[in-house]
Design brief:
185 residues; Rossmann fold; seven-stranded mixed beta sheet; 18% strand; binds S-adenosylmethionine
């Protein structure tokens, strides 16, 4: 029989790993929570992602948005992730994907990334990360870029479309910086 002490150590180890995996990256800007498939589908639909797009996914997690955009929408995609275990998972999923030639995975900090080539930015991050990303987007995004964010809006920007049920905000840059109105679906 396994002694109680060993069971306790194993349990504590599991809790530590789970807490690290989910919350560790909070120190960098956002914890981990994968987007639901229905949310991803709606994000890609609202942003009208297609084969001519280059989609950047800051905080790509384990690839819920990234893989789907490449496989179903045939977009070229770049996933940016800081947490090393998730980077490994992303690289493994890329290697296994039939769309691997369209997928790039960067082990990188989203606040130091280059967003200039993007035609679409698709994010599911935390409020403070959205606040910090706004000036970076405003200094880098090309006119015509769509930014689609799940749950947290880009503070101070006016969305072109809002899916209130799933909390998805679509922005068209640079129009989102001025004007009024937040049309909902
Ligand atoms: C809420 S999860 C979203 C995952 C994925 N995009 C999805 O929708 O399923 C946010 C991700 O951002 C990553 N992250 C947090 N801060 C980061 C930073 N400064 N640079 C890169 N990635 C970061 C976390 O490690 C986590 O995987």
């Amino acid at each position: 029989m396994i002694p109680f002490a060993w069971l306790s150590v194993a349990l504590v180890a599991v809790v530590v790993v789970v807490v690290y995996f989910v919350y560790g990256s909070f120190l960098c800007g956002a914890g981990y929570q994968p987007s639901f498939p229905s949310v991803v589908a709606r994000m890609l639909e609202l942003a009208e992602v297609g084969p001519t797009d280059l989609l950047l996914d800051p905080g790509a997690g384990t690839g819920a948005i990234l893989l789907r955009a490449a496989e179903e929408r045939r977009a070229r995609v770049v996933g940016i992730e800081i947490e090393p275990i998730r980077v490994l998972v992303l690289r493994l999923r890329r290697w296994l994907s039939p769309a691997r030639s369209r997928i790039e995975v960067r082990w990188e900090n989203i606040f130091r990334s280059d967003y200039r080539p993007a035609t679409v930015v698709a994010a599911f991050l935390w409020p403070d990360a959205m606040r910090r990303l706004r000036p970076i987007f405003e200094s880098q995004l090309a006119p015509g870029t769509r930014v689609v964010s799940h749950w947290h809006p880009v503070p101070g920007w006016n969305p072109a479309r809002v899916d209130g049920e799933r909390r998805i905000f679509l922005y068209r840059y640079p129009e989102c910086r001025g004007g009024a109105g937040t049309p909902s679906d």
